[in-house]
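Below: protein 1.
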Amino acid sequence: MSLGPTVALVAAGLAFAGGTAYVSLMHDSPAPGEVRVLDRPSAFAPTIHQFPAYLDAAFANLKTAMRPAPMMTASLARPSFAARFAGVVTDIYASSSTSVAAAPTRSLARPQTRVAKAAPTPAPRIRAAALRMDEREPAPAPKSYQVASYAPTRDDTLDAPPFSFHSDIRVPPLRQSVTTLVPFESAPFPLHPASATADEGEHVRIHFRSTVSWEKGAFNDPRVLLHIPKGFDPNKPAVMVVFFHGHGATLTRDVLNRQEVPAQISESHANAVLVAPQLAYDARSSNPGKLWEPGAFARMVREATAQLTLLYGDPRVAQSFANMPIIIVAYSGGYLSAATSIERGGLTNRIQGVVLLDALYGELGGFANWISHNRSGFFVSSWTHSTQRRNAELEEMLSGRDVTFGHAMRSNRLDGNVVFLPGDDGIRHRDFVNHAWADKPIKDVLDRLPEYRL
């Protein structure tokens, strides 16, 4: 700490008390031309032994206001958080009304440093009101849910398997059977070949693996017979039966009324629909018409899908009709349309079975190829004496290709089976759609397909 202020005060005291007495505390030798005080003693001036008394007298006469300002004891210890906020330090320095007597003095001694022992910081206390508004248990977090569907699943958990089309959209079963004749753009007829330059009164020869004749008025009917039985359920596996009639037939007189093909579909209680196009109208012809064109069978089935959807009355069933497996049933002269459809129709993968009702008059190679390449499908051919020889020839062809076949129907399974069945004794060819190896043979085939049971 500097001694300048103290020496100045001492000098001022000496001047005030002793008048001419002067003590130089700043220099050890006298200045030139001056006489030191100690060398010239005086009776009126105090001696060196009286110096403390002079100091006491000098300081006693000083006014209180001249005394040095109060100073606080220096300390290197950092004031605590509570002391600072309580005003212990701040108030002393800031207050102007503090008395001199109460003011602490500054010390020149080495300050003592107080090392505070660090106490563990207590965990912050959080008011409960900051977390929730009341003392009730917090509500559990909401669970996640599946996208809602039209049909109830087995449970409402996330472990439930994703729905498919059939479980997603539940369409009610059909309450009443519907049967109708609908004209198709893709129907086998009418067909007007480029080579037909003669008028309608003349016969035109059309060659497609066999010779058939174009007869007046026989190939102009574009209608297709559609039938959906009562109770048909598009939510279940279903099958489409495509029926090709024989010579001299019409859809109304023969297929619907005499042969009762729609009735056989209904009586089987199978989840099946019927598509029966008009071939040669009441004529002795096996002409397949447009069906000989590549992909023509697929086009006809696609149009049938649209018409069946309209007939059902609910657009949601369109996908069900579009994916149905197909069973082709051909009677008599319908064999050529059946062979053409399985060979070049464009829906080989959807054809599950082929049934020939006394219809194997030709195209043995085409049927043998389909059987050889579709081992998971089934093939049934039943005959009278008119087609017995052709059936025997096909059996020999299949034996040469290592295809196993039998002569009896299994009761509850047809997939992968190849069966040749003779018709019952005395059954006429004309009645074969109604009576073959059994009464109502189309119904009998559907009865042996439990996967399509309603």
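Below: protein 2.
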Amino acid sequence: MEQNDKYSFLYEVAITVGESLDLKTILDRVLDKIIAFMKVDAGVIYVINEATLEMIPVAFRNLLDEVVRDLCEKRVKVGECMCGTIAQCDREVLIFEKASLDPRFTRGVLKKEGMEFYAGLPIKANGKVVGVLCVITHAPYVPDEELLDTLRAATLPIGLAIENGLIFEHVKREAADRSRYVDFKDIITNSPRMHEVLSLIRKVLNVPTRIFIYGESGTGKELIARAIHYNSVRQDKPFIPINCAAFPETLLESELFGYVKGSFTGAVTDRAGFLEAADGGTLFLDEINSMSSNLQLKLLRFLQDQTFYKVGATASVQVDVRVIAATNQIIEEKIRDGSFREDLYYRLNVIKIDLPPLRDRKEDIPLLVRYFIQKFDKKLDKKVRSISENTLLILMKYAWPGNVRELENVVERAVIMAEGKDLLPGDLPPQIASSLQQESDWTLERFEKDHISTVLSITKGELKKTAQLLGINQSTLWRKLKKFNASED
């Protein structure tokens, strides 16, 4: 390889990573340059999500549609399959022939890609793996060592670009969060039970007491935690969310408390943990029920005096952190079976917030649907403006085991499928309709009754306002209610 070609390529990569702070834009451009320079067929750049340890395929080129769909929808985590192992072990992998047959590729779909040559390199920033670069060919390919060295050198500016891009995204997200959550603007509700929750939250915003949030999956526990933080005196300090179930025990300990250089294999430098990063702000511990007994004890000790020891350290660290814990499990049952410490529960459960499931706040469904339609119509560049009455009634009758998160996903899918300005029943996922097939009463009278009950809930029983929203006069509404009451007697 000509030295000029090598230096020209590395110069182009360095220039490219400085052209933008948008991570996807940078990595797309860099990957194009790498594929052209290496004369390979395809490639992908993964970025590690620190919170979930998922390998996010931010940039990819020339892969089978089926492979792309699998990588995006069923994300590999650190330690899984080939790229996850590269990230975990911080070691490159080179396979010079019949790469698709290598047993380290545990995802069956990758075998369909027909890889002959494969190179997977860890991407690092400040001594830590932040991503993985993979390039492949479908035909025999034998790069010389100098070409591979050049590719290795290119990972250095890419690592810095990823680090800067993640910082930029974090800053943007923080700014957006402040705007979204101030005065609870992002909490869409007309539900009396949710208004009781908000009333309780307002009373405890600026006191340092710990809060325990219980709610089924998808009810918005992190949304509430963020609202507490961004409406409190801590709003200008960090909000650090952690899903405890996403980390193995040993990794969660080092991520939570941090570690010192040399404390374990791979600890090449001192590192602050989530507790230290959240100093002055709020630490949100979701799915805390999944935390091991050993970590529960260490967390308990921290809560007693706000001090802790990094892994491998002999000196303690003191911080000022408000802890908000959450679970979708009935924690009292976990205490009885011995999997959760009772003393930790009492430390965390100073103020308990119970979030109602969506099936118990169905009056919020019309509001949420309108909100999600506007959100996804803009995001997906569609022309959907509303939802038909029959479609809304179907959504009102569904049980929503996944709560608000499931409703959001359903509306997003419906907006994608919609061909007109209104969401229609055919735009909904098949499981919504199939779950309602057991419903015995599908008469129009039943739908009308349910719809009127919903609007009455929204107006808190005000007949005049209910009649206006329904588009009928008040005497007609009164006659319908009398008829419904008579049919129940």
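The longest strand covers residues 128-137.
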